[in-house]
Structure formats: C-alpha cells, structure tokens
Amino acid sequence: MSGIKKKKVNPNVIMNEGPTVIGMMSAVIESGGSLDTAIRDVAKNGPKCSSEMFREVVTDADTRATSDIKSGLFNELSKLPPSLTPLRRSVHMTAAASESADPPEKKRMLKDASEISLNGLKETGETYSSSLNGPCMMIFGLGIMVPMVLMSILPLLNMGGMFGSSSIGSEPIAFFTIVLIPCVIAGLILSVKEKNPFMRYNEDDQKYVYLVPLLSAGPVAMIIWMMTKDVTLAIMISSVVGGLFTFAVLFPHVNKEKTREKQEQFLKDAVFELGNRLLSGENFEVALVNSIGMRKECKDLSDAVQRELGMCRGDVCSAIRESVGKVSMRIAEIFCDVYRCSKKDTRDAGRLGISIGRQLQDQDTVRKSIQNKLKSMTDMMTGTAAVFAPLVLGMSIAMLGPVSKVMEGVDTGSTPMILSVYLVELCILMAVLTAYLSGRTGLREIAYRIGMTLPISMVMFYMCSNLGL
C-alpha cells in the first residue's frame, strides 16, 4: 500500500513541502520536544503530501508494524526517489539534533538541516524554471505563428498556384487551427504541470460552480446570432459578456484570498516580532496581540485574537487556533508551540520564536526568488493570449481583406469566425497554463484568469481585424 501511494506523489511537491516539514520538526525539537512528538505534529498539521507520509509512519508504529516511529520514518525515507536526497538528509540531521544534549550543537544541526532542505528546494525550482523555456517557446510559436500562416498566407499561396491545380480548402485549415493546434498546446501544458514543485491544493477552489458564470456566454451568443445572423459577432460579444461576468463574480473571492495570503505573510513576520518581545520580558498574551497588530492590515485579526484570549478561560491554544487559524493554521500552531515553551521559560520561548521566524523568512526568500523567475514566463503567456495573438491575427485579416477584393481565388469569409473560436480556445489554454505556472491549480483561479483575458482578447481582435473599414 505504501509503495503504491508514493508513485502518485510528485517528488517536486514533496521537495517544496520539505522546508515547512523541517521547520515544524525544528520548532518542536528546539522547544524541548522529542522526535516522536515532532513526527506526530507533522502527521497531524503538516503539508498535504508530507503529512500523508508521516501519518503512515505513525500508524505503522502504533499498530506495531514497525518497532518505533524513528525506524519507521527512516524506512519511509529510504523509499523516496534520488531527487529527494536533500530532504532525506535534512530529516536525518533533524533526528540527530533531537538526540543531542548540547543546546548550541542542537541549534546548529537544526539550522544546517533547514539550509539543506532550502538548497534542495532552490535547486529543484531553478531546474523547473529552466525547463520551461522550450515548451513555452513552442506554445508561443504554435499559438501565433502557425495560425497566422494557416489563415492568411496559405490562401495567398493557393491563389498563386503553389499547390498546383488543386487548392487547400478551408475545412483542413479549420481543423488544424481549431482542433489540432489546441490539442498539441494542451499536451505541452500537461507536461509542464507535472513538473511544477509549487503546486498548492485547496479543495474549496476545485468546485465546478466557479465555471457556471462562463456558461452565460451560451445564451448571449444565441441571442446575438438570432438578431444579426453573424456567427463571428455572436462569438465575440458573448465571449466579452461571459468573461466580464465571470470576472465580476469571482473577483471578490480572489481578492479575499489575496488578502488572506497577505495577512499570512504579515503573521510570519509577527512570529519573529513575538520572539523579540518575549526576550524583552513581555507576557505572552500581550506580546502576541501587539506583534500581530503592528501592521494595520492585521488590526482586525489582532482584535479577534484579543477577544478569543479574553474568553478562552485559560485555553490559549484553542483561542489562537480559533482566531489565527482562520488565516493560517500553520502559523497558529507555531504560536501554540511558542506558548507552550513560554510556560516553562519566557526567554527560551523568545529564542524559539526568533529561530522559527528566521526559518520562515529564509523559506519565503527562496520561494519568492524562484517565483519571480516564473512570473516573467507567466506574464508573457498572459500577454500572448490577451494582446499579442489577437493583434497579429487581427492585423493579418485586415491586410488580407483588400487583397481578396481585387484578386480572385482568395476566400476569407470564414477566417474571422475560425480565428475567433481559436482565440477563445487559446485564452482558456493560457489561463490553465498560467494557473499551473503560479501553482494555483483550482478551477476558481482558472475561471478568473479566463474572465480576465478573454474580453481583452476579443476586443483587440475585433478592432484589429476591422482596421480601415
């Protein structure tokens, strides 16, 4: 069973979760906990894929399938592929630190374990980033140059007798443009998706209800077609209306998630600030409220924490989970670890908070540097779907129009309709690609990106294709 499950896990995702796992284990061990406690904490509260692996270790130990948790963990680590060697080394070093009786040596070993996992993630991210150049260039060429050749240059070659007495009809060209090219692009996108180490899974984002606003384009297209009998115009207007409606419906949800992520980032800074305040002698509850409330974006959250602490009747951890957990359960558990340590020694708790805060900052630095490299690729793909592709294809139609009026054998009647359908497909495919590149694979994010790019693409295509009319 265990071996089968490992095959379904993307090693890059496990590597991405590695620094978080090491950080959680280090927090428990540095605060005086055992390796068993650290493993159980990751199994209960850790990242999705890693927590599943650690839960198997805990289950095997509790059911006596293995002699103890430590040997079970090492057995699971031995099954990991070679690409996860940095994670395996960092976990082994963390386990060794848990057995050290010298606090400075323990701290040094935990720091080394964190650096090993971060370096492994950095190397994985750079490898992934460099591997995108080829597929993205192919997508760029297929998405723009090939349709332009098929829809504008081939008709001119037909007219010049390039293909002899027989000419290429519009049906094969339409098949290549609407069916074959999107299928090839979809295959390239799937190959890119499987290698992304920064995938984030949220079940709430996977609901098909987020795609419902896009369906509004169907009735609008029928109405426009019945009024004008113009298929191309119906496709364009319905795409604009459906895209704008989708954007308007999903914008509050996406904006709320961005606000939560921003608050989570501020909470990571608050962990470091909490450690400083505890070292200066402040009470934990006062230090926690003041640390969170330092940023105006977290003022409401700070007030919520203060209210929960006032009503918790001594159960501080449940108050923290009830308030901070709504923004980030991981940071809530870190605050709980620091609180448990503060009950023994406030200064030790302060040092723990500073240590964890530095780990969180180091992790964010590595991830941001890699994501910044991916952002340029994401922006290029978005710009291709929203602006560059409709601009080039629309100008091709505009230039081909005068030629068809003065020369026989050039039929461009179906070209705008075929290209409008293709641009809708391209916007959908680029929305999926950019969502995968950013690590957000939820249907909500994909639908939001479609709603953002599709209206711009259709307006740009309409303006450019009717240039000079």
Explain what this protein looks like in three dimensions.
- The structure is a single chain.
- With 469 residues, the chain is mainly alpha-helical.
- The chain has 3 domains: 2-129; 133-160 and 168-250 and 364-465, no CATH class; 262-362.
- Helices cover 79% and strands 0% of the residues.
- The model is unreliable at 1-7 (pLDDT under 50).
Compact overview of the structure:
The chain is mainly alpha-helical. It has three domains: 2-129; 133-160 and 168-250 and 364-465, no CATH class; 262-362.
DSSP strand count = 0
Strand portion: under 5%
Averaged pLDDT, please? 82
Distance between the termini: 67 Å
Structural category is: mainly alpha
pLDDT < 50 stretches: 1-7
H/I helix tally: 18
Shape: elongated
Summed up, the domain count is 3
Element pattern in H and E: HHHHHHHHHHHHHHHHHH
Question: Mind sketching the topology for me?
Answer:
Layout: H1 2-7, H2 11-30, H3 35-45, H4 48-62, H5 69-78, H6 85-98, H7 103-131, H8 133-159, H9 170-193, H10 217-228, H11 231-279, H12 284-292, H13 299-311, H14 316-323, H15 329-342, H16 346-406, H17 415-438, H18 443-465
Helix pairs in contact: 2-3, 2-6, 2-7, 2-16, 3-4, 4-5, 6-7, 7-16, 8-9, 8-16, 9-17, 10-11, 11-12, 11-15, 11-16, 11-17, 11-18, 12-13, 13-14, 14-15, 15-16, 16-17, 16-18, 17-18
How would you describe this structure in keywords?
18 helices; disordered N terminus; 3 domains; 469 residues; 79% helix; mainly alpha
